[in-house]
Amino acid sequence: MSFAFTEEQAMLREMAARFVEEVGGSQAVRAAAASEPGHDPAVWRQMVELGWSGIIVPESAGGLGLGQIELSILAAACGRALLPSPLIATMLAARALSIAGDEEQCARWLPPITRGEITATVALTHPEGRHLPGDVGVRLRREGQDCVLDGAAGFVLDGHVADLLLVAARDGEAIRFVAIPAATEGLAATRQNSIDIGRAVARIDLTAVRAGPEAVLPGDAFEALLLHANATLAAEQMGAAAAALDRTVDYARQRIQFGQPIGAFQAVKHALADLALLVEAAESAVWYAAAVADQRPEELPIAAATAKLMASDALSRCAADMIHYHGGIGFTWEHDAHLYFRRARAAAGLFGDTDRQLAIIADGMTTDREMLRAA
Amino acid sequence: MRLDFTPEQEAFRSEVRGWLDRELDGPFRHVRGMEGTSEGIDKRFAWERHLGRSGWNRLAWPEAFGGRAASLMEQVIFHEEYARSGAPGRLSHVGLELVAPTIMAYGSDGQRARFLEPTAMVDIVWAQLFSEPNAGSDLANVQTRARLEDRPGGPVWVLEGQKIWSSFAQYSQWGMALVRTEPGSSGAKGLSMLLVPLDGKGVDIRPIRQMTGGSSFNEVFLDGAETAAENVLGTPGEGWRVAMATLTFERGVSTLGQQMSFRTELDRVIRAARSNGAIADPAIAKRLARAEAELRVMRYTALRMLGDTGLSRAGLTYKLYYTSWHQRLGELAMDVLGPAGDIAEPGGDAWRLQKMYLESRSDSIWAGTSQIQRNIIAERGLGLPREARPPRQEPARQEPARQEPAKQERA
């Protein structure tokens, strides 16, 4: 057992950090997020060239065949700069295909995803933001061989620009993912006006959208995908929290009041120490959840919920304190602090809020006592 | 990043588990589950001597000193299995985990030969004599003095002063004392580390009755206590450096064992919440879930620390994290129990939880208060500047090598 990164993982971390540093400046990030697609297509093309669009895609489909640890490494790096890209959305779609798709579906969609020819996303959230299986807002009915989808989903990552949508739909008792190309008739995607101006989310409306049987993923992936989504999102939140803390610490080192850096005052430094606690806790939980996703999927519910819980706590506090300890300048539009604060609020609710994560942990708490030892 | 244990590690685990179960089901079954500071002291020392004879109490020691030179993971496994088996809380850890490594690092060959073996066999139990009434968080403010005097049998150090908060000193034969040996010095300068017999004249050990009712800490009055001149650890004047080294030994794999006792306590709280129905209260259920999540995080952080070289930021945050967790668990336990927790009769779960509630208030004080911990995290972990401090009267004090002065006495 080892909690250290492998040499390859450490290299990936370094490379990702360097890349995000290069392309993730404040002005570039703001401009990209405010643009129509919500990201810079040129940056996404570079990510594709680096292999990121195939990071978790099996080698047989042209991907790098790596795991959640590597995807979390990338998400954490992007999170630091709040760098927008279709990476998470597209990898969640790839994950849904890998878990629930048949060979033909994987062969059809994974290679173009990996090559960056298309981006993809998953639509699994009720328009009002709920995530329980019973909340899925799209219904599937059969008409002969075909199926017809009606309903809506919200908070769909990059949903207004994705070329392929994997739409979660209620099929009787089951929930199936249906692969719908964006150009399909009856499908409308509209970018939503999110408090998080750094991430594009869209509402998807489906009106008698018709799909052939080959579009329906046969497997059951809804719950598993939510867990993977939270493990990945938690990594991104953790990266953002760490950056918010680092930037606040830098400021506290430089800002002089009463003849010394404000970071020398215990009233300030103790508050920042408390943030470090939250960031370290999030980091522990995030890497553990990533390792569990790859190596012990049966533990993923609690591990992913713990990661999401800790990362949400860390980012919420770090972002709020980033504003506060920067003083008035932290309350301006030009300062990035509000971008982190906005991300904190929206990300905490995405794919299940803190109460939902606590409920998952409470469920698991009562069952498996051996888990701690086995960990 | 790998989550599984190797076959060798699993084999080691079965060896440990087999031995513990055999002993604790057999000759030592009466010590199982004993904890605290006064329960079954004689039997527990007999158990600890048995651990010493069997070699299990010094896995980390190098082979040259009679240890097993066990890997970190093996130590982790041992601590987990020890806690799982219900083996009793340890009374001799100051000697084994703090004093012995310091002797290995700074002791002369003669000191190693004289002290390590009996410490391993628990024939010598050690007390740590660092803190004083006026040297708590400001540990370098030591006022206990020692001077060399001639005696017919050779020169001796004569000690005058008062030490406090010494864990289990009432059961100890020797103490490791941080004392001022250069008259007129102040702060970290002019200190020496002396090994002092506690059963001789001039030593008065008085247990302190704590707010829990128990007594794990002691006051130690030194009024002309003597130790041979050779019993200085390192060179005279080097005491601060030796003390700082001792304090770094306290962090280690034993934190994993401590987590197992946290696990036992949290399970006790969950059990109580189920049996009295408190778990149906969503506010209580959420607090329990949070406690569960945070305990898991502690484990992951400890595992990350083991993989790190040097003291990482994660390592620096560890004590503050578990301290506040443990205090909140105490509060949660009492909220789960409700008024019934206030009138618990000795022996049951509710009584143990009430004890934990009271006991946990010490967590934020010992081994570096939570305020000292935040200074350490901010200054060493985040690189924030030190707060301006008024100068001491006498020469400026040296920066500690790795860590703030911090009281670290606690078994």
From TrEMBL, chain A:
Keyword match Oxidoreductase: yes
Cofactor(s) for this UniProt protein: FAD
SUPFAM superfamilies listed in its UniProt record: Acyl-CoA dehydrogenase C-terminal domain-like, Acyl-CoA dehydrogenase NM domain-like
Keyword terms, alphabetized: FAD, Flavoprotein, Oxidoreductase
Chain ranges of the Acyl-CoA dehydrogenase/oxidase C-terminal domain: 226-365
Molecular function as annotated in GO: acyl-CoA dehydrogenase activity; flavin adenine dinucleotide binding
Domain Acyl-CoA dehydrogenase/oxidase N-terminal: residue ranges: 6-117
Pfam families: Acyl-CoA_dh_1 (PF00441), Acyl-CoA_dh_N (PF02771)
Protein family membership: Belongs to the acyl-CoA dehydrogenase family.
Name this polypeptide is given: Acyl-CoA dehydrogenase
Species whose genome carries this gene: Edaphosphingomonas fennica
From TrEMBL, chain B:
Origin: domain of life: Bacteria
Annotated Basic and acidic residues bias: 386-411
Domain Acyl-CoA dehydrogenase/oxidase N-terminal, first and last residues per copy: 6-120
MF (Gene Ontology): flavin adenine dinucleotide binding; oxidoreductase activity, acting on the CH-CH group of donors
Region (Disordered): 379-411
Acyl-CoA dehydrogenase/oxidase C-terminal domain sequence ranges: 237-381
Keyword Protease: no
Residue ranges annotated for the Acyl-CoA oxidase/dehydrogenase middle domain, each copy included: 129-215
Record has Oxidoreductase as a keyword: yes
Keyword tags: FAD, Flavoprotein, Oxidoreductase
GO CC, alphabetical: plasma membrane
Co-factor requirement: FAD
Family: Belongs to the acyl-CoA dehydrogenase family.
Protein's recorded name: Acyl-CoA dehydrogenase
